Hints:
Blueprint: E1 8-14, E2 32-33, E3 36-37, H1 38-48, E4 53-58, H2 62-72, E5 77-80, H3 87-92, H4 95-98, E6 104-109, H5 117-130, E7 134-140, E8 149-152, E9 159-163, H6 170-173, E10 177-186, H7 187-194, H8 210-219, E11 224-229, H9 241-254
Parallel strand pairs: 1-4, 1-6, 4-5, 7-11
Antiparallel strand pairs: 2-3, 6-10, 7-10, 8-9
Amino acid sequence: xxxxxxxxxxxxxxxxxxxxxxxxxxxxxxxxxxxxxxxxxxxxxxxxxxxxxxxxxxxxxxxxxxxxxxxxxxxxxxxxxxxxxxxxxxxxxxxxxxxxxxxxxxxxxxxxxxxxxxxxxxxxxxxxxxxxxxxxxxxxxxxxxxxxxxxxxxxxxxxxxxxxxxxxxxxxxxxxxxxxxxxxxxxxxxxxxxxxxxxxxxxxxxxxxxxxxxxxxxxxxxxxxxxxxxxxxxxxxxxxxxxxxxxxxxxxxxx
Length: 255
């Protein structure tokens, strides 16, 4: 059960196709590790930490994902992201379910199966104890190329910015602390910020990371806290069959 005194809802982003997995008919989150679909590991985590509600955002192959999740985890709710227009857009699809929610909202990914309950519990504790409006899970990568970098405030306690690899200058590129993409938000601050997102970037997508810019601009530099995991493999996602096999080996060693 969660140590937090606030109610917890978990949102799992699972709308992507996974084109690099080489099967155009199969949603990426239904590939298996140790006989369990990847998203099943994430749903089990959400259940294990005592989530009051769990919402899976579906898109590609949604009928297959809904069939699996609703049969294995019957209390799961679903939101549909018909077009994949970014992580911020995905979260906007949960507004009618959660915008009046009184607790915290944890954001997980359907293709990140090795995240542990203890790491998430620590994230939730940092979030509540700091009084932050949002908290980012970070990790140290020896080779952080391709990842958004965590730029901390001068006192090192809070988030100043997340700078994407493609936008980073050499000084920022030298930072080894990366954004895992896993977050927790106070719901009452999340949805007003989501409504302000703009797709003014080359990809024409709505980025969930822009919510942090909005919160920091509106509520100050202590708005967004950081919880760092010491086990970077936990935040690894799956984009290829090679990565699937690699994470399965690690899972079987630690299971």
